[in-house]
Specification:
The complex is a heterodimer of chains A (438) and B (293). By secondary structure, chain A is an alpha/beta fold. Chain A contains 20 helices and ten strands. In chain A, strands 1, 2, 3, 4, 5 and 10 form a six-stranded mixed β-sheet that branches. In chain A, strands 7-8-6-9 form a four-stranded mixed β-sheet. In chain A, strand 1, helix 2 and strand 2 form a beta-alpha-beta unit. Chain B is mainly alpha-helical and 293 residues long. Chain B has one domain: MetI-like fold, CATH 1.10.3720.10. Chain B has a two-stranded antiparallel sheet. In chain B, a hairpin with a 6-residue loop joins strand 1 and strand 2. Chain B is flat and about 75 Å long. Classes of the chains: A alpha/beta (438), B mainly alpha (293). Chains A and B meet through helix 3, helix 19 and helix 20 of A and helix 12 of B.
């Protein structure tokens, strides 16, 4: 009796569930991201605008924590058979994502299958190159991109008697000594993201390799070789200046960016994405300038590389869902929308048209700070050494490189020994990754 | 004569044990066996390709000089944290056990830090001791002390030890206080009448009578430092500088979660599990003999 009742109830429930499905169901597209604060609002607004622009699809963003948290949540969800459609992955997760054949759907493939108009040449190559195969096929969709710039406290430089913004490393060292003499006893200059600044961006900007095979873009059998004379020389300079705090280390991430906004460090290299914070907190006249270079290095400055995150499409979804994702990407690529995003958030525009339009509107005359990273990225045609980088286990690799840089700065090792060890330990990890990715 | 209360059924005792057994199996043996199995596999992060490689994960692990360094770091870290948190908690407990005004107030406040999550505890200490932002680090630097946990390994170790000890004192304090309150006053009074001073009474009466509590806390604290402290380390130092605060459990976390190397991470957790089981066994075998119940 009870069983029969249950059966009847179940039948009713099933009928209801089926009946409740309208003829034209809204297709839901789940988007996992790692954006907080103002950037979270941007994500929600983009989704709301897209949902309002049509009736077939509904993009549902949800915040999943930090970049590594979001990536791990995506991986765990995939293993449990419940992956979202779109997941935001930071640039260093690129190799891990692209090696997961079957777990992801490459963007160029997605756009082709969905018959969406898509011209890879419309995008800025300095940005999409990072997320494309060596043949130029776009694997993921760039979302928030930034580059590294040198932030300058103009008031303090003036007080210390530094004429003009330093362009080269020797000029920066000089300015730092003057700043130190003028009262900045704990910090002449500094930087956040130590490996991004002192290994990755430094190498690209000076057109020297980080690893073979175009820094790993051309294959997982890449071998690290950033222990060259120029990188060693730069690290040794930092080590020497750390002793009297002309240079002072600020940790692995960007927690110490506040040293710039508080006025402690008047010269500070970090992401161009710092703009949003610094414009709200700095009580002095600031600007951004291109990263410094060694004038005797041939070809320097070359071009900088990007950081930030891109949107990956997960595999194993229905074609109609992919159609919605493709439409959403077309929506994001719209010139006016890109211009708006760029001017609001400080993220770099991803299409050439958006960059040109922002320029033509005269936006950069009023906000030169926002153009610095674009000038760096487009400074020269990218070379093998400056298209980007793609190493497996990059998240942890950065920690290992940072460990070695810390050992050098603490005086436990010479710069040469530290970079040699960073290369050797990194290569061990690359070989381990190659085995899992074959 | 057969009227004594005995349950005849063979089934009932087992039935009553089942919930406990299920919980143990599901939440301990099952994950542990998974980790054990995973430690013989090589797998990519997405679980798309999986390959049995025997002991290769262990061989690679024991070929890393960093792993031995992590072991040494763990030894230093766990000794410092266990000894300091027990000693300080005992000191506080003996003080709070005295007849004080507002004793209940102190006792309540002493327990609060235990409710703070490890990562939050780490962030609190960072706010105080970050070299350029920390409220307590700046005076240190002004006084001419070059406080720099970002580059100085000893400073970084001191910082994570302080945070981990601070977090654990509340828990130890609670147990020590309960232990102290269960010591009969008559014994202490007898000692006092015989002319033993406060220090002597503490070492010859209180401390031995407290030994079951101390032993229990020792075991719990060892487990705490070995397993529960990675949140603090992650928030405060991320294992740095130059690996100076990378303990074994932090390495498990870093290799598995940040590095996506589940095989090595699993192998490390198996090694860690073996060490903690061995340590606990040794404690029960040798230290417990000195305990007077």
């Amino acid at each position: 009796m009870a069983l029969r009742q249950f059966g009847a109830a179940a039948a009713v429930a099933v009928t209801l569930a089926l009946g409740a499905t309208p003829a034209h169901a809204v297709i839901e597209i789940r988007w996992w991201h790692a954006m907080t604060g103002g950037n979270n609002d941007v994500v929600n607004k983009l989704a709301a605008d897209f949902n309002a622009s049509q009736t077939e699809y509904k993009v549902m963003p949800s915040y999943k924590g930090s970049y590594p948290d979001t990536m791990n949540a995506g991986i765990a969800a995939f293993r449990a058979g419940n992956a979202p459609h779109i997941i935001q992955v930071f640039e260093v997760g690129t190799a891990t994502m692209m090696s997961a054949t079957g777990a992801i759907k490459p963007v160029y493939q997605l756009m082709k299958d969905a018959n969406e108009p898509f011209d890879p040449k419309a995008y800025l190559p300095a940005i999409t190159g990072y997320y494309s195969t060596s043949k130029g096929d776009m694997l993921s969709f760039p979302f928030n991109s930034s580059s590294m710039v040198m932030w300058i406290n103009k008031d303090e430089l003036k007080k210390a008697g530094v004429a003009g913004i330093p362009k080269t490393w020797p000029e920066v060292f000089d300015a730092a000594r003057k700043l130190k003499a003028a009262g900045h006893a704990t910090c002449g200059f500094s930087n956040a993201w130590t490996t991004w600044a002192n290994i990755e961006q430094f190498s690209a900007w000076h057109n020297v390799p980080i690893g073979t095979k175009a820094n790993g873009l051309d294959g997982f059998d890449t071998v690290l070789n950033f222990n060259g004379p120029l990188q060693v020389r730069h690290l040794q300079n930092l080590v020497d200046m750390e002793k009297d705090k002309t240079y002072d280390y600020s940790g692995r991430g960007n927690a110490s960016e506040a040293r710039f906004a508080s006025g402690e460090c008047a010269i500070f290299l970090t992401s161009s994405g710092y703009y949003g914070t610094v414009k709200g907190t700095a009580k002095f006249d600031f600007t951004s300038a291109p990263m410094p270079y060694y004038p005797d290095a041939p070809g320097a400055p070359q071009n900088s590389i990007i950081g930030g995150a891109s949107l990956w499409v997960m595999g194993g979804k229905k074609p109609e869902e992919y159609k919605g994702v493709a439409k959403f990407f077309t929506f994001l690529s719209d010139t006016n929308r890109q211009v708006y995003l760029h001017e609001e958030s400080g993220y770099l525009p991803i299409t050439k048209a958006a960059y040109e339009k922002t320029k033509a509107d005269g936006f950069y005359q009023k906000n030169p700070v926002l153009e610095t990273p674009l000038k760096e990225l487009t400074n020269k045609e990218p070379t093998e050494n400056s298209r980007g980088l793609r190493f497996g286990n990059m998240v942890q690799m950065r920690d290992i490189w940072a460990e070695e840089i810390e050992a050098a700065l603490a005086g436990q090792k010479t710069a040469q020994a530290a970079l040699d060890a960073a290369v050797a330990r990194g290569n061990t990890m690359l070989r381990a990754f190659e085995k899992t990715a074959k | 004569m057969e009227k004594s209360v005995v349950f005849n059924g063979k089934l009932l005792p087992y039935l009553l044990l089942v919930p406990q057994l299920i919980i143990t199996l599901v939440f301990f043996y099952w994950p542990a066996s998974q980790a054990f199995w995973q430690s013989f596999l090589r797998e990519d992060a997405f679980g798309l390709r999986s390959e049995f490689i025997g002991l290769e994960n262990y061989q690679t692990l024991f070929a890393q000089p960093e792993y031995y360094k992590a072991m040494l770091t763990t030894l230093i870290f766990s000794t410092l944290v266990a000894v300091l948190s027990l000693a300080i908690a005992l000191l506080f407990a003996t003080q709070a056990d005295k007849k004080l005004k507002a004793a209940a107030f102190y006792k309540t406040f002493m327990i609060w830090p235990y409710a703070v999550a490890p990562a939050v505890a780490g962030v609190l200490w960072i706010f105080m001791f970050h070299p350029s932002l920390g409220t307590l680090a700046r005076p240190l630097r002004w006084m001419g002390f070059d406080w720099n946990p970002l580059l100085n390994g000893n400073h970084a170790m001191a910082l994570v030890v302080m945070a981990a000890v601070w977090k654990q004192i509340a828990y130890n304090f609670l147990f020590f206080l309960a232990g102290l309150q269960s010591i009969p006053k008559s014994v202490l009074e007898a000692g006092a009448i015989d002319g033993a001073g406060p220090m002597r009474r503490f070492w010859t009466i209180v401390f031995p009578l407290l030994s079951p509590t101390t032993f229990f806390l020792l075991v719990v604290n060892i487990v705490y430092v070995f397993f529960d402290t990675f949140g603090i380390i992650d928030a405060v130092t991320e294992g740095g500088p130059a690996g100076a605060t990378t303990t074994m459990v932090y390495k498990v976390y870093a290799d598995g979660r940040l590095g996506g190397d589940l095989g090595s991470s699993a192998a490390q957790s198996v090694v860690l599990m073996a060490i903690v089981i061995a340590l606990t066994a040794i404690q029960f075998r040798y230290v417990e003999r000195k305990v007077q119940y």
